[in-house]
Every structure is written in C-alpha cells, then in structure tokens.
Amino acid sequence: GFGAAGRALGEGAAEAEAVPVAAVMLAAQQEIPTVDECSTYFGTVIPERMTVVDLSAPSPKKSECKFGYCGPNNFVHYPGHGRHCKFPGPPFGCHRYAKTTYTEACPVSSFSDLTFGFDSGKAFTDEGILKACAAAVESTEMHCWSKPGPELEPCEC
After folding, report:
1. 64, 130, 131: which is closest to 94 by C-alpha?
2. Which one of 2, 78, 95, 119 has the minimum C-beta count within 10 Å?
3. How much of the chain exceeds pLDDT 70, in percent?
4. Are 49 and 101 spatial neighbours (Cβ–Cβ below 8 Å)?
C-alpha cells in the first residue's frame, strides 16, 4: 500500500499502477521546449556560446510580486548549456529578454553550474550578462514579450 498517503485517498481507493521513473523523466523532458523551439522568441540559440535572461521577472514594476519575488529580477531562460530552454511567459507587463553571445574566451565550464529560473546566485549582471564572462561578450540582443501563455505577443522594449 501507500501507507498514510493511501489512507488519505479514502477506504477502497484503488492502488495506482506503478510508473517507471525513467518514463516520468522522459515525459517531463518532452514537455520542456528545445532551443530550436525557442528560436521563435529569441532567434537562434547556440549552446555553450549564448545565454537568455529575462531582466524583468516577475514584473518590470517593483510593486508587483509573484513566485515569491517582487519587481525586476533576472530569470534564466537558457543557461548556456543543454538543448532545452524556457519559453517567455511574463505574468506582468513587457519583459526584456537579453540574449548574450560570448566569444571563445568564455570557457564552456562557465555555463555548467547555471540553471533555469530566478538567478538567486547572482551569476548575471542587471543587463543579463554572465559575470564570469563579462569580458568575453561578443553581442547582446534584446527581445521583448508581454502577456503569458497563448496570448504572448511582442512589445516595445
């Protein structure tokens, strides 16, 4: 049985069929967009040479809060490695997404510890540049999006 969790379902509740962990992991990975799918929003994204950071998460305004954060914070949509990214999904206002391209002077290892989500480790500057590679910036592009989900639309930066 499921112990207390099973009892919480109520008497006579059927036990769920076990699902292999690998199948759950595969399904979760398939739901995460690939860098190719993100090109619709950010243009071409090249692993180990680029990062994409929302500079306005969860809101451009300091007074608007969501997900335990208020005002503009950095949210990593592409951490510079792997084949997955996060689509834009701004809950408030027009968000600025900085796509930064780094030269080969930025070691690939600089990206290895970066993850998706809020930049709580402060690895990026307020301009969305990876601090460890600030001297190796080739270019920065700004992509701006507003409205969450299927209503997503470009906006003026």
Report:
1. 64
2. 2
3. 80
4. yes
pTM of the model: 0.78
Residue with tokens 């391209």: 101
Tell me the C-alpha distance between 144 and 73, whole Å: 15
pLDDT in tens, 65-97: 999 999 899 999 999 999 999 999 899 999 999
